[in-house]
């Protein structure tokens, strides 16, 4: 007898399972469907949602083998002859980037990151409501540019900020076919050209001087035994998306983290006490100081568990396979949902409760690989994970030791939960007062 045909994933019945309900309240629909339908459910024909840690990890780890990602937002950077970087050159570019993005490399450059984190907290305007995300974005852009371009950070900052703003507009524009010349796409193309021209000038100046530098760009400009000297177009192509990535996800994460500090003052007090071990001079902060911030790291992880900015990741099946016992045909879209996977009681007891201590328990949430997916996992996971976690930990520690944060008074919510593109506390405003015994601040 032949093998019985496996069933397609279930879906919510009636209007609850339709696209209109999904677009009206994505988070609510995702949670309802995960509870009612199980680990994998069907949004509509040809679109599945992986809602639990196991299926999520399976899809992410099989990316490039059984699944592929959507095309990137940015156009390939072409060299003088018009040819874009090929797959092998892009792989070489990735390898060169990772030499400065791996955890050990990030740990060695904590002193580059820490001053920006201290600046974020020390310069917070006090006794008035402050919109958090624009402020976080500006500071994170400076930290990212310093890490990538060091002495050339100021030269690249405006171009990088323009590129990030254009991509944000692109994400939020009405989805139209890729060939449609929308205003958002034209703006993105212009900003990408400005960024590429600015970075090309920096590269040419460094190469002419024979001083590639000790930052991430400098590492990419040095020849390597496996692939020699990377062409300028490959370097620019490699750093375009990375420059934006150093800002996008961390900005949203900072918003959720600071909201948690405001809502959980006892946790904030614990972090403030822990952060007293940091040196007064942020440039003197080392990886040992970072490693000692255990409660801070636990809070950051707990916030990323509850509010992963990358709450929904898209993959497309490239071959026939199966997922949690359901058939997956080539061309099927699978939406990987860390948001519901992180709120699964099988993996995280009391999943809807804010419990940073779960990350300090040797038998707690850290035990099982694959149940913590704010940066994805597998071949296409976020390559800047170590950098982002270092930034978030230091910003959290510096803020907690200097400031008490409060939500604005009144019954109305101080922000809107936005799920378009990423999970974002849009419009979040907080008020700060100095913490007694903390370092002096300047508004």
UniProtKB/TrEMBL annotation:
Signal peptide: none annotated. It holds the Pfam family p450. The keyword Heme applies. Residues 1-20, 423-443 are annotated as: Disordered. Its cofactor is heme. Heme binds at residue 382. InterPro entries: Cyt_P450 (IPR001128), Cyt_P450_E_grp-IV (IPR002403), Cyt_P450_sf (IPR036396), Cytochrome_P450_monoxygenase (IPR050121). One of its GO terms (molecular function) is heme binding. Keywords: Heme, Iron, Metal-binding. Belongs to the cytochrome P450 family. This is Cytochrome P450. It comes from Streptomyces sulfonofaciens.
């Amino acid at each position: 007898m032949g093998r019985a045909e496996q069933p397609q994933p279930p879906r919510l019945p009636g209007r609850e399972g339709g696209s209109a309900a999904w677009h009206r309240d994505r988070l609510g629909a995702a949670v309802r469907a995960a509870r009612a339908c199980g680990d994998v459910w069907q949004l509509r024909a040809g679109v599945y949602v992986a809602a639990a840690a196991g299926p999520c990890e399976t899809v992410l780890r099989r990316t490039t083998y059984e699944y592929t990602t959507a095309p990137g937002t940015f156009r390939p950077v072409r060299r003088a002859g018009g040819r874009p970087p090929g797959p092998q050159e892009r792989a070489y570019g990735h390898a060169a980037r990772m030499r400065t993005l791996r955890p050990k490399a990030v740990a060695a450059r904590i002193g580059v990151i820490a001053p920006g984190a201290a600046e974020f907290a020390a310069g917070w305007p006090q006794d008035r409501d402050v919109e958090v995300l624009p402020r976080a974005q500006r500071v994170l852009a400076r930290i990212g540019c310093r890490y990538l371009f060091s002495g050339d950070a100021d030269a690249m900052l405006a171009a990088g900020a323009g590129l990030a703003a254009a991509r944000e507009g692109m994400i939020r524009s009405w989805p139209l076919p890729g060939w449609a010349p929308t205003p958002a796409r034209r703006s993105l193309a212009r900003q990408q050209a400005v960024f590429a021209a600015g970075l090309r000038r920096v590269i040419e100046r460094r190469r002419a001087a024979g001083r590639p530098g000790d930052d991430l760009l400098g590492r990419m400009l040095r020849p390597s035994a496996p692939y020699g000297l990377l062409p300028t177009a490959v370097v620019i192509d490699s750093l375009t998306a990375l420059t934006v990535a150093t800002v996008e996800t961390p900005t949203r994460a900072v918003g959720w983290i600071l909201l948690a500090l405001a809502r959980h003052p006892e946790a904030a007090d614990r972090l403030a006490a822990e952060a007293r071990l940091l040196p007064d001079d942020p440039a003197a902060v080392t990886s040992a100081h970072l490693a000692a911030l255990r409660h801070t790291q636990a809070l950051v992880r707990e916030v990323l568990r509850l509010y992963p900015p990358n709450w929904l990741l898209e993959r497309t099946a490239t071959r026939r396979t199966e997922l949690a016992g359901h058939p997956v045909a080539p061309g099927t879209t699978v939406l990987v949902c860390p948001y519901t996977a992180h709120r699964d009681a099988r993996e995280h007891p009391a999943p809807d409760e804010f419990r940073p201590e779960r990350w300090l328990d040797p038998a707690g949430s850290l035990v099982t690989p694959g149940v913590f997916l704010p940066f994805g996992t597998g071949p296409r996971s976020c390559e800047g994970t170590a950098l982002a976690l270092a930034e978030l930990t230091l910003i959290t520690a510096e803020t907690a030791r200097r400031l008490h944060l409060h939500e604005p008074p009144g019954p109305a919510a101080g922000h809107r939960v936005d799920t378009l593109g990423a999970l974002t506390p849009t419009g979040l405003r907080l008020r700060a007062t100095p913490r007694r015994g903390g370092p002096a601040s300047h508004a």
